[in-house]
Design goal:
It is found in: Membrane. Keywords: Disulfide bond, Glycoprotein, Membrane, Repeat, Signal, Transmembrane, Transmembrane helix. It comes from Champsocephalus esox (pike icefish). Its main location: membrane. Among the domains are: 73 residues, Immunoglobulin-like (Sandwich); 32 residues. The chain starts with 17 loop residues before the first strand and ends in a 25-residue tail after the last helix. It is elongated, with a radius of gyration of 36 Å. 18% of the residues lie in helices and 30% in strands. The chain is of the alpha+beta class. The strands form two sheets. It has a four-stranded antiparallel beta sheet, with no helix packed on it. It is built from one helix and seven strands.
């Protein structure tokens, strides 16, 4: 007589493929297939961890998109059978169209220039400043084209 016995096979393995996915804008999730489930840690390679980056388990959240976030980040998935890493390169460029300080400085310089021209015009009309109408002619010599030297 044949007897069938129930059994369960439990396979244990280290993290296989580690994947970094963009969870939402400025948020990345690190995933790995492993048994038992992998413990996920985020680190930054060759630079100190920036204040505007937050590690929450498998999630890396970039709070403010500033150039200090630029660099290489590493997600490591590990369990008692092994570990595997994946890297994420972050590059935040400064938007040239959004420079409030530049526009304020430009506006101030423009207003000062207009005020200086208006003040000079007022002083000229009131007689405080006078332009001399005398002009002196400066003698010049014109050479025929064949005698001109090309530099």
């Amino acid at each position: 007589m044949e007897e069938t016995l129930p059994f369960t096979i439990q396979l244990y393995f280290p993290p296989m493929e580690v994947t970094i996915l963009e969870n939402s804008e400025g948020s990345f999730i690190c995933e790995a297939e492993a048994n038992p489930p992998a413990h996920i840690t985020w680190s930054r390679i060759d630079l100190p961890w920036p204040q505007s980056a937050v590690r929450e388990g498998a999630v890396l959240r970039l709070k403010e998109m500033t150039p200090d976030l630029n660099g290489l980040y590493q997600c490591e998935a590990s369990n008692q059978h092994g570990s595997k890493q994946q890297q994420l390169c972050v590059y935040v460029a400064v938007a040239s169209g959004n420079c409030t300080a530049c526009w304020v400085l430009f506006s101030l310089l423009f207003i000062l220039s207009v005020a200086a021209v208006a003040a000079a015009g007022y002083l000229y009309k009131s007689g405080t400043i006078q332009w001399s109408g005398d002009r002196q002619l400066v003698p010049t010599i014109s050479l025929p084209p064949e005698e001109e030297q090309v530099l």
